[in-house]
Specification:
- This protein has 515 residues and is an alpha/beta fold.
- Helix content is 32%, strand content 25%.
- It has two domains: 7-242, Rossmann fold; 263-339 and 426-432 and 459-515, 3-Layer(aba) Sandwich (Rossmann fold).
- A six-stranded mixed sheet has the order 6-9-10-3-11-12, with helices on both faces. Strands 18-21-22-15-23-24 form a six-stranded mixed sheet, sandwiched between helices. A four-stranded antiparallel sheet has the order 2-1-4-5, covered by helices on one side.
- A hairpin with a 2-residue loop joins strand 23 (474-479) and strand 24.
- The longest helix is centred in the middle third of the chain and has 16 residues, at 178-193.
- The chain is globular and about 70 Å long.
Length: 515
């Protein structure tokens, strides 16, 4: 741990309003130089607003900021850059149609007489990637062709390429695999040893404990405490974050929710997709939460997308409620006799329309239900959506406010409300609690249990093994496109899941977050 006492950042009585919403309410805290400092809070607590203010993207309505002892008024990101502040955002800033090199050098590409020096930029990017230990990423590749973990690592690399003295990491591990999380931990340790100050936003307490010296907690826009990480237990941190005691999820009474004579709601037989799936067969029953566990890129995404009409299968068949179906698009899945719906990996680009209000987001898949002779019954639509928002505990203002104005956890609940309104009986949930705070996680868990207890079925993938242990009736281990193990009942332990996800070749450290 680091012994610097001088603050790198001081926030004094900062307030930021968005209309009637107070995102920060007189928040004050300080972060010492050359330390890794966690900023914790539920979704909507003000963490991302604080990061945007420190990044120069937003200006506070009142209050003061100091950077290395000097009071500043950050007017823009470029102003923050000049002071040595760089940010790696959860909402990635990479441009999909540009290459890795072009993204990492923007807006500071090497030029001569106004002309971009492409070769020099390519060489500079290769050197940066090698230096950061991610030289396997091709600097000539287009961002759109890379997987989510690679894009997240590049978001971090982009900030580090500008040699920051303060690095703001906004949910940096929400899209990273287990090995990539280890990479980030090494990076944080190395940067702090070189005098860089890290502000680390995360909902994952094991990572906070592993990487951070101290933490500050925000709740409802207010600062409720700054502590050394080792001074608080996990339960104490959770209660400070939530402002209440969280009732932890208990394991399901596994196997009791599925009737002995039940017919599968969703089945796959010998599913094959070149390079991604190899002869996978599974059944998903009413009342069941069926878990899928695997390392990044082992075929789990292709499996979920196959059941949602998004992956072309070269072999095998899918049955929905016993009926053989060819799912050539998500519309086929949604409109099947029982309805198959999916909460995708990246909710902001695939799960919701950020600039539309919640009412349109929730009703869109079934808008014909509210249409008569070409006209939409807005009253009936609003009433139905309002009921769904209440069911997932999202404020009624979501009816008319853009989804982008809500926290990540509420956005995810709005995406879930959409499929509850559609009356889908099968939910494909791909890492649904990624980047979601502990309180909202518990709400999502409860909604999942209610859905299964009411006769629905869930195919559930998570990067967090404890979630699988707590929630699932059965778990399938997927490795290199094949199901290599099925776990039931007392077999469902973190140790057994870890063995499955690494192909049963060896054990890894207990309680690691893997994907």
């Amino acid at each position: 741990m680091h012994q610097h006492t001088d603050p790198a950042i001081t926030v004094r009585d900062v307030t930021k309003r968005f209309g009637a919403t107070i995102a920060l309410d007189g928040a004050s805290f300080a972060i010492r130089r050359a330390e890794a400092h966690a900023l914790l809070g539920e979704n909507g607590a003000g963490k991302s607003t604080a990061v945007k203010i420190l990044s120069g993207l937003l200006q506070p309505d009142s209050g003061e900021l100091s950077v290395f002892g000097e009071e500043v008024a950050l007017q823009s990101p470029r102003h923050a850059h000049r002071l040595g502040i760089q940010t790696a955002y959860q909402e990635m800033t990479l441009i999909p149609d540009l290459t890795v090199a072009q993204n990492l050098l923007l807006p500071y590409q090497p030029t001569v007489a106004g002309q971009i020096r492409g070769r020099r930029g390519l060489a500079r990017t290769r050197h940066l990637l090698d230096e950061l230990g991610i030289g396997e990423i091709d600097p000539r590749a287009e961002i759109r062709d890379l997987d989510l973990p690679s894009r997240q690592k590049l978001e971090i690399a982009k900030a580090l390429g500008r040699n920051p003295s303060i690095l703001l990491l906004d949910e940096p591990t929400s899209a990273l695999s287990g090995r990539d999380v280890d990479w980030l931990g090494w990076l944080i340790q190395d940067l702090c040893s070189k005098g860089v100050t890290i502000v680390f936003i995360s909902h994952r307490l094991p990572e906070v404990r592993a990487y951070c010296d101290s933490l500050s907690i925000l709740r409802n826009g207010q600062h409720v405490g700054t502590h050394a990480v080792g001074d608080l237990s996990d339960d104490e941190i959770v209660e400070l974050v939530a402002g209440r005691s969280i009732t932890r999820s208990q394991a399901r009474n596994r196997g009791q929710s599925v009737a002995a004579d039940a017919r599968p709601l969703l089945s796959g037989r010998h599913l094959t997709a070149e390079g991604r799936l190899r002869d996978i067969s599974l059944d998903l029953y009413p009342g069941e939460i069926l878990g899928v566990s695997g390392l990044q890129g082992m075929g789990q995404l292709a499996l979920f997308q196959a059941f949602f009409g998004m992956t072309h299968l070269s072999g095998g068949e899918i049955r929905v409620d016993g009926e053989r179906m060819t799912l050539s698009s998500p519309a086929d899945a949604i409109r099947s006799r029982i309805g198959v719906s999916m909460l995708p990996e990246d909710r902001k680009t695939e799960g919701v329309f950020l600039h539309l209000p919640g009412q349109q987001n929730v009703s869109l898949p079934v808008i014909e239900r509210f249409s008569r002779w070409g006209w939409i019954d807005k009253t009936a639509e609003r009433r139905a959506v309002d009921q769904m928002l209440a069911q997932v505990n999202v404020h009624p203002r979501a009816l008319y406010k853009a989804v982008s104005s809500f926290s990540g956890g509420n956005q995810q609940k709005i995406a879930l409300a959409k499929w509850l309104l559609a009356r889908s009986r099968v939910l494909l949930m791909f890492d649904p609690t990624r980047g979601v705070d502990v309180g909202t996680k518990e709400e999502i868990y409860e909604l999942m249990r209610q859905f299964a207890d009411n006769g629905g079925a869930i195919l559930f993938y998570s990067t967090e093994i404890p979630e699988l242990v707590t929630l699932c009736d059965r778990i399938l281990g997927i490795y290199r496109g094949e199901i290599i193990e099925e776990l039931m009942g007392d077999e469902i332990t973190e140790d057994r899941i870890l063995r499955a996800v690494i192909g049963q070749e060896s054990l890894v450290e207990e309680n690691r977050v893997v994907s």
